[in-house]
Structure formats: structure tokens, C-alpha cells
Amino acid sequence: MQNTPSPANVRGASPGGRGPGVSHGRVLVVDDDPTVAEVAAGYLERAGYDVERAGDGLAALERFAALRPDLVVLDLMLPGMDGFEVCRRMRAQGPVPVVMLTARGDEDDRILGLETGADDYVTKPFSPRELVLRVEAVLRRGRRTDLSSPARLSGAGLCLEPLARRATRDGKDLALTLREFDLLVFFLSHPGQAFTREELMREVWGWDFGDLSTVTVHVRRLRGKVETDPARPALIRTVWGVGYRLDLPDDDVPGN
């Protein structure tokens, strides 16, 4: 493992509990460093989560299959089987939000982690309070039931049911991660409008700050699933100097 935080480097005071006996979900923490795993698990438990731990990739897959957690906190640098492969195998069993732990400065690892399907990441040495906030944000987006959302969004062969969190293209189910789904819902809700990466980070991720490459990677992954030719995107367009815009065929534009 690289840049393993010592207790002195794991920053932050206790976030405070939310009351005994109240569970906000089940989280699997996967890290081969006992100190990191203990600190992360402790803060998440005090924040109201039921937490299970695993120290390597094989143990993580076994615990995942048995527990079906609501979210996984996953270190990239694991012995035997790295976090990238663990994430791929978990996702093959079913959708699950993943927050990855990465070494500070390893941008390539962070990008690859996001491309593997991670919903968010926290860099080491990390603030336990930040980890709890990231976990809460990811789960909140996944569980949110916005009754003002339309029952159905469609265009260019895409059909989304936001309340059911179901997406299809030309009648075939799309395997979208939590963030990819939310991003596509946002784009289909605002066709023809250009948004900066900062605006997308705020509206889709719910953060006023963060690494904007997160947005770039998710747009690229989403294009790979909804575009006929991802190398020449016809739906999710890059607006140079601004950000991104969803263009629908004229027949699909509301009001036409």
C-alpha cells in the first residue's frame, strides 16, 4: 500500500453519533492496513452505519456476496487482487456505489478508478469526516426520491425512469452506475443547454468543490454507453471553452 496514513495523519475530530440503534445503511470497508480500516469503520459507525471490514480482495468479494452492502469503501492498493479488479468483480454481481481510497498525487490511479466505475474517491492521508460526507452524499443521491421528477424522460432512443432508476436504449437495459444515471437524467432534463464542469459537479454530485476530472471521466464513460460512436459523440457534445451539452434529434426536442 502506498502513502498509508498513520493515526496522526488521519485527520479530523469525531463527527458525532446520530443516536444508538439507528442504522443509515451497511458499508463494507476494504483496506489491508488495520489502522486505516479501524479509523474509517469507527467514524462510519459513529455516523450511524453498520460496518463490515475486509483486509484483501478475496475476503472483500466473499463479504460482498454475503452481505450485499449499500456501499463499499475500497482501497486501490490491495495485496493479491487490486481494488480495480475487486470493483469490476463486485459490479459484475450487481450495482453498488463505491468510494475508492487512493494515494495522494496518483492521478492516473484516480482516473482509472473512476473509469472502473467508482462513484467517488478520497485521497490518503484523508480526513475521516470527509470520508463520512462522501459516503453520505453518494448514498443520498442513490436513495433520493424526488417526487417532482418526471416519471419518464426520453429522447434519441433513450428512456429513463428516474423514480425506478431504470434506463434503456432502444428497448435494451443500460448498465449505468449511480453517477452515470444521475448525469444522464440531468442532461435529458435540460436538452440543448450547455453546462460547465463546475455546474455539473454541483448539480449532479452535490459538491461545490472537487476534482473536475471526475466529471470528465463520467462523461466519457456515459458516452461509451449511449453514443453510437463514442469517438464522435452526437448526443453529449463538448462545448469548447464551456463544458458539455446534450443534443437531441429535432423530432425529440420538446415543442417541435
Automatic annotation (TrEMBL):
<keyword id="KW-0804">Transcription</keyword>
<dbReference type="InterPro" id="IPR016032">
    <property type="entry name" value="Sig_transdc_resp-reg_C-effctor"/>
</dbReference>
<dbReference type="InterPro" id="IPR001867">
    <property type="entry name" value="OmpR/PhoB-type_DNA-bd"/>
</dbReference>
<protein>
    <submittedName>
        <fullName>Response regulator transcription factor</fullName>
    </submittedName>
</protein>
<dbReference type="Pfam" id="PF00072">
    <property type="entry name" value="Response_reg"/>
</dbReference>
<dbReference type="InterPro" id="IPR036388">
    <property type="entry name" value="WH-like_DNA-bd_sf"/>
</dbReference>
<feature type="region of interest" description="Disordered">
    <location>
        <begin position="1"/>
        <end position="26"/>
    </location>
</feature>
<keyword id="KW-0805">Transcription regulation</keyword>
<feature type="modified residue" description="4-aspartylphosphate">
    <location>
        <position position="75"/>
    </location>
</feature>
<dbReference type="InterPro" id="IPR001789">
    <property type="entry name" value="Sig_transdc_resp-reg_receiver"/>
</dbReference>
<feature type="DNA-binding region" description="OmpR/PhoB-type">
    <location>
        <begin position="148"/>
        <end position="248"/>
    </location>
</feature>
<dbReference type="Pfam" id="PF00486">
    <property type="entry name" value="Trans_reg_C"/>
</dbReference>
<dbReference type="InterPro" id="IPR039420">
    <property type="entry name" value="WalR-like"/>
</dbReference>
<keyword id="KW-0597">Phosphoprotein</keyword>
<dbReference type="InterPro" id="IPR011006">
    <property type="entry name" value="CheY-like_superfamily"/>
</dbReference>
<keyword id="KW-0238">DNA-binding</keyword>
<feature type="domain" description="Response regulatory">
    <location>
        <begin position="26"/>
        <end position="139"/>
    </location>
</feature>
<feature type="domain" description="OmpR/PhoB-type">
    <location>
        <begin position="148"/>
        <end position="248"/>
    </location>
</feature>
